[in-house]
Design goal:
Layout (H helix, E strand, L loop, with lengths): L1 E3 L4 E4 L9 E5 L9 E2 L2 E2 L11 E5 L4 E6 L2 E4 L21 E3 L10 E3 L5 E2 L3 E2 L2 H4 L7 E5 L4 E5 L4 E4 L1
Parallel strand pairs: 2-3, 3-11, 5-6, 9-10, 12-13
Antiparallel strand pairs: 1-2, 4-13, 6-7, 7-8, 13-14, 14-15
Amino acid sequence: MIFNVFYTQVAIGKETIDGRSTILDFNNTSTNTKGLILPATKGLPGDSPANGTFVFDTSDDKVKVYENNIWKALSDAGNSASVITNSSDETGNGVVIGAKEGSADGILVLESSDKAMILPKVYSPHLNVKNPYPGMICYDTASKTFAVFDGTVWNYWK
């Protein structure tokens, strides 16, 4: 992991970041088959989550995003049977990238008014990710869509 203090940018699995408008960047080689795994929550988290909060809700096995004061499903009901529950006590407030303190409560909070996250890029994840984990997200470079795995099938969003 490379951390650039001046631009408050983080690269994971690579040495350089694509552009100055990127806050979090991943190793996006053409053979990449890894994505981000969303937190698996039993029900929806806390009071007043921040817009743009993503979870894999194991109570109904759906990937969801919080937007404009409502939770929106990004997948049909999938399968959370392979989710491994973390039973350790949570300590601290998570990691904040882009600011000294985060304005939202989360495991990973990206704070920036002028930088974005580049999702891991995977070519045809439904064909190339052999054992996807429920709640995995990535950008499908073949279909040019946002892809989420609900534990059963891949769901694609333009």
